[in-house]
Amino acid sequence: MSILKSLKLATAQPVRPSNDPVERARNKVIAALSEQKAMAEAKLAGQNYAPTHVVWRKNDEGQRVQVETPKRLRAGWFVDASGQIFFALKYAAKPIEFAKDKNAIAVGELSALPAILDTLTEAVRAGELDAQLAAAAAERGHMLRKAR
User: Fold this and answer.
1) In whole angstroms, what is the distance from residue 89 CA to residue 31 CA?
2) Which of 120, 56, 103, 110 is nearest to 84 (CA)?
3) Secondary structure letter of residue 5 according to DSSP
4) What are phi and psi of 109, to 5 degrees?
5) Burial profile 2-19: b = 16 or more Cβ within 10 angstroms, e = fewer
6) What is the pLDDT of residue 136?
7) pTM of the model
8) CA 17 from centre of chain
9) Which of 31, 114, 122, 127 has the maximum number of C-beta atoms within 10 A of its C-beta?
10) Is-contact 51 71, C-beta < 8 A?
């Protein structure tokens, strides 16, 4: 008996990631919202949230090595002059307007922020912010073209 006959053979192809720019933008915003949620939950628990990522650096001998460094991450929430907490979402270095002249969500207390971020994540998955994300990306691309 052949050894290959003992295996279960099939015809298959790997799934390729989507080249759809709208889907890429949604995934990027969803990843950022999940990091914001983790940061908010850590702050509520009284802990420090310090995510890391792997980057390439040169060591003392001049060789390129992978090094794990802390990721720079800013909180998306802020406190205004009256002491109320708000959450603002940025994409392509531009604040996203949720409605006409409304660029932030009133949170109230920090303990309500994770639930608001979950709701916002579902809105992004449903495509409710696609027009705003596309406008921010287009404006950012226009700014970069002018600088050249």
Assistant:
1) 12
2) 110
3) G
4) -105, 150
5) eeeeeeeeeeeeeeeeee
6) 84
7) 0.77
8) 17
9) 114
10) yes
